[in-house]
Structures are given as structure tokens and as C-alpha cells.
Design brief:
Distance between the termini: 28 Å
Mean pLDDT: 97
CATH topology of the largest domain: Aspartate Aminotransferase, domain 2
Strand order of the largest sheet: 2-10-9-8-5-3-4
Number of domains: 2
Bound molecules: pyridoxal-5'-phosphate
CATH superfamily of the largest domain: Type I PLP-dependent aspartate aminotransferase-like (Major domain)
Number of helices: 12
Order of helices and strands: EHHEHEHEHEEEHEEEHHHHEEHEEEH
Helix content: 40-55%
Structural class: alpha/beta
Shape: globular
CATH architecture of the largest domain: 3-Layer(aba) Sandwich
Low-confidence stretches: none
Number of strands: 15
Radius of gyration: 20 Å
């Protein structure tokens, strides 16, 4: 028996999807592979409200984050950060030798359009990175509003880490002017880890042609060349792509995209109501995530003990807090294919353990 995952990635994977992984291997230069690729493409575009190409990366999300900044910045990048993953994107940018500044806000507090406008008005930047759903703090950033500011400047690309939000909450890539929207499939997609996806705009592809290539594996121009043939540049994680196809069929044709988002909205609401009753919620109100809840540990419980009991006696796992807020918070994910009875069951179990 495995531990049921209420963690914000990796998430619980339906057994039907695990079975897809054992589909007999096909060759990535065979027509069958291009058919598989072509099956997936329009569904990913539908999910992301985009007509732009959506590339597949055989890497975790971090690879796609590297790709964004190594291809998308000619002058200087502005990394917006109000949590751990956004701060990490700044480190990733710098480590790749890309010139970058960090606009840092307290964890769980919003970065406002004005703050971004002030920075961009200097004319120093040609790309902005932002995390849509900050998994460390359980906060959803208003990327639509920030995007309006970014897009009011010519030639500033808007690069979004939507790792723990994509397939759980609506992102209108084209309407919101997002040049790259990336995610790993082990979070709200509810798939086994090993693959990332990212929409790529024409502006970004043009930029990729202009920058001095810093990477071969994550080179967008090369990836694009093969995308046009319905192939990937190098041998991809074919089993994961089979599973992705099945899950996209499920999301688009069976559950429904809007219905999936509505379910995430409802389930996060249930966890947040519970958190307000017994604890508190870490990020500022109005910005609570729809895919996970970062609970503020106002009762001073031992999060490690709680998770130990959940794992040992209930084969269920939640997450402790992230980094600096490790024991002061804990995180409950409602990502992927979790149902209302499952979430209610988890909360009842936690109440039982804690005697609430
Ligand atoms: C999980 C996560 C990442 C890192 O993803 P990997 O797939 O482990 O590389 C980056 N950003 C956010 C917001 C995440 O939740």
C-alpha cells in the first residue's frame, strides 16, 4: 500500500494513468509518435487558452524555467519574488549567466502592478518572470493584472512558472499576454513526474533566435524546429507522454476544463474554511491558492508528528512548510484528481489525530 498524496507535488496519480506508462514503447521518429504528439497538442492549447505551440520537455519543471530565462533575455531579466520558488527562479537566472535583478516582496504578500511598473519604467529590462501559484506560501499571484503592466512595454517578455497551478486553475495564456507558461506534469495534472510542458509565443521564439545560445538541451529554436515536425529534439519520456495523452482526454473530454477548475475552487474552499476554523491561513486574504492551502500553525502543533501519524496509521501524506516557514506552516494540496469525499475524509482524520 502506498501513501496517498495530499502533497503539492508530486500528487496522487490515478491507477488508469499508471497503466498507460506500460504502453509498449514506440520509436520517437516513427509516424506513431507524431500522431501521439498531434493528439496532445490541441488539447494542451485548449487547456491553456492559447493558439501558440506547447512544447514538451523531458525534464522536471526546473528545466523549463532554465529554458525560459536562457532563451528569453537579451538585456536584463526582472525576477518578481514573494516566495521560495520565485526566489529560486532568480538563482536559476543568475546561475545561467543571465543578467537579472530581483524584485523581492515578503512571502505571502502581493507584488502590485505599480511596483512592477516602477521597475520597468527604467527601461533596463526585456523580460519579467513570475510564479503564478507560489507553492511555498499557497498564494495565487494576479498574473493577469501584472501582465497588463508588462505588456504595456514593448519587447518585455512575460515568463510564467505555472507549475502548481496549470490544469487546476484557469490561465488564459493568449489573453493575458504570457510569452511562456510552463509546468511539470507531477502537480495539478496528476501525472507521474518526468515531463514538463510550456507554451511559447512568437515573440519568445524571435528572442531565442537573437540571444547567444546558452543551452543545447533547452534551446527553444532547436525545439521549435522539431515541434514543426510533431517531434521532440531528443528522445522524450515516451511513457509519460502516453499518460499525458490519456489525462488530457480525461480533462478536456470527460471531466471538462471548466469543471476541473470549479472542482479545485470548491475543494480549496473546503480546506480554507477548515483552516480558518482551527488555524489560520498564511498568505494575505484575497490571494489564496485554488490548488493548495498553506495553513498557519497557530496552535503550535508538531507538523512532523502529525505527518508521521498520517503516514504510519492512515497511509496518507501532507506537506510540512517550505524553507524558512517549515514548522510555522503546513500545506494541504487539493491538486489533480482528488475528490470532495477524499478531502473531507483527510480533514476529519486530522481533526481526530489532533483532538479538535
Ligand atoms: C514544484 C515547483 C517547482 C519545481 O518543479 P520541479 O518539477 O521539481 O523542477 C517550481 N515552481 C513551483 C511553483 C513549483 O511548485
Amino acid at each position: 500500500m502506498h501513501d496517498k498524496l495530499f502533497t503539492p507535488g508530486p500528487t496522487e496519480v490515478r491507477s488508469e494513468l499508471l497503466q498507460e506508462l506500460s504502453t509498449p514503447q514506440i520509436h520517437h521518429r516513427a509516424e506513431e509518435f507524431s500522431d501521439l504528439y498531434d493528439d496532445i497538442q490541441p488539447k494542451l492549447q485548449k487547456l491553456l487558452y492559447t493558439e501558440k505551440p506547447v512544447f514538451l520537455f523531458t525534464s522536471s519543471s526546473t528545466g523549463a524555467m532554465e529554458s525560459a530565462v536562457t532563451n528569453g533575455v537579451k538585456k536584463k531579466c526582472l525576477n518578481l519574488a514573494n516566495g521560495a520558488f520565485a526566489e529560486r527562479w532568480h538563482k536559476i537566472t543568475v546561475k545561467n549567466g543571465v543578467s537579472a535583478d530581483l524584485l523581492k516582496q515578503d512571502w505571502g504578500k502581493p507584488i502590485t502592478p505599480d511596483m512592477v511598473d516602477e521597475k520597468l519604467a527604467t527601461g533596463n529590462y526585456d523580460a519579467v518572470t513570475m510564479v503564478f501559484n507560489e507553492t511555498s506560501t499557497g498564494m495565487m499571484n494576479p498574473i493577469k493584472e501584472i501582465g497588463e503592466v508588462v505588456n504595456s512595454y514593448d519587447d518585455v517578455l512575460f515568463l510564467i512558472d505555472a507549475v502548481s497551478g496549470m490544469a487546476g486553475a484557469k490561465i488564459e495564456v493568449d489573453n493575458w499576454g504570457i510569452d511562456m507558461c510552463l509546468a511539470g506534469v507531477q502537480k495539478a495534472f496528476g501525472l507521474p513526474s518526468g515531463l514538463a510542458v510550456a507554451s511559447v509565443s512568437d515573440r519568445l521564439l524571435e528572442r531565442a533566435e537573437e540571444v547567444e545560445p546558452r543551452s543545447y538541451y533547452f534551446n527553444l529554436s532547436l525545439l521549435h524546429k522539431y515541434h514543426k515536425r510533431s517531434q521532440t529534439r531528443t528522445t522524450p519520456a515516451i511513457p509519460q507522454i502516453f499518460a499525458l495523452r490519456r489525462q488530457l482526454e480525461h480533462i478536456v473530454e470527460e471531466e471538462g476544463i471548466e469543471e476541473r477548475f470549479a472542482r479545485h475552487d470548491k475543494l480549496s474552499g473546503i480546506v480554507q474554511d477548515w483552516a480558518k476554523e482551527y488555524f489560520d491561513i498564511f498568505p494575505e486574504e484575497g490571494y489564496w491558492s485554488k490548488t493548495l492551502t498553506c495553513v498557519e500553525n497557530t496552535r503550535g502543533i508538531s507538523v512532523a508528528e502529525l505527518n508521521k501519524t498520517l503516514i504510519e496509521e492512515h497511509s496518507t501524506r501532507i506537506s510540512n512548510g517550505y524553507g524558512d516557514i517549515g514548522e510555522d506552516t503546513f500545506r494541504i494540496s487539493n491538486m489533480a484528481d482528488i475528490t470532495e469525499p477524499e478531502i473531507r475524509g483527510l480533514l476529519a482524520t486530522i481533526n481526530d489525530i489532533l483532538g479538535l
